Amino acid sequence: MVTIIIPIYNEEKNLLEKIGQFRNLSKSAELIFVDGKSSDNSCSIAVAYGKILHSKAGRAAQMNSGVTQARGDILLFLHADNIILTDTLETIERKITEDGYIGGCLTQRIDNNALIYRLIEWQGNTRARLTREFYGDQGIFVKKNTFLRMGGFPEVPIMEDVLFSRRLRTIGKTVVLSDKITVSARRWEKNGIIKTALIFNLIIILFWLKAPLHKIKQFYEDIR
Predict the structure, then answer these.
(1) Dihedral angle over CA of 6, 8, 13, 14, nearest 10
(2) Does the 2-184 domain belong in CATH 3.90.930.60?
């Protein structure tokens, strides 16, 4: 069984928009929403579709907290604005149980039809396939026993997903599935494509240069 862990923090609008998805997913998987002290109605909406846990704010801490209550032997970490098909759960289970993979991510699709977004997707998906370094909005999945053996996500201010997937690829086979995960274009639409792309690439460069993560996080907050 797959347990889907969704960290939330003031995600009322996204949760309302995705009610149909959560209803469908809850029929095929265990859903755990981990709230980081929201001040809106996020929890009262999510409780209809899964278990609600409370944690200190911070994506890594929230996801780690969710795993402590997970009953599934496969974990899938989703952002509240992600969309996947229920068939994808079957693909993940097959890759883990039959094909010998210990984890991976999905192929990203940005929810905007403009051509520039196809280029952004291609860049991110190609990077993931070549490096086996995954971002959280690509839908990271992993065997639960492997996750526990690794000690979970490092509870750092930012880039916990990349740090985790770097370690994961040293333990066993990982894969980028062709199954799509749809991501909201809200960040690019709100802040502009050029500014958002420049800041994302600056974050990557600073990370490779081993800049302090708390300083890198400041740039990420500029485009939230």
Answers:
(1) -30
(2) no
